[in-house]
Amino acid sequence: MTGFDPLRTLRVAYRQPLRPTPGQMVTRFRVVRATKGETRRTWQIAHHVEGATCGVVFQPGKEYVVIAGAWQSRMSTGLCQQAQFSLAEYEVAARR
Question: Can you give the pTM of this predicted structure?
Fold first, then answer.
């Protein structure tokens, strides 16, 4: 899988620091609904947490629509690759 193409609705299961890279996290998501791309029950997605590096912070238990792609042998995402919005905001926009 390459590029930032797959669109999935994901729920944050847990977060942990990505070692040995400071300023990065790996967030494990449980898939609620797959709109596009490979379907699996969970995804571990790496991301920066600092705004200057397109970082984003996902809150445990909250649902997000996530666009992620393969980068350096792992799935990754960031604020610069996509609009960050909650599932509720996505559902409202989808009804328009």
Answer: 0.63
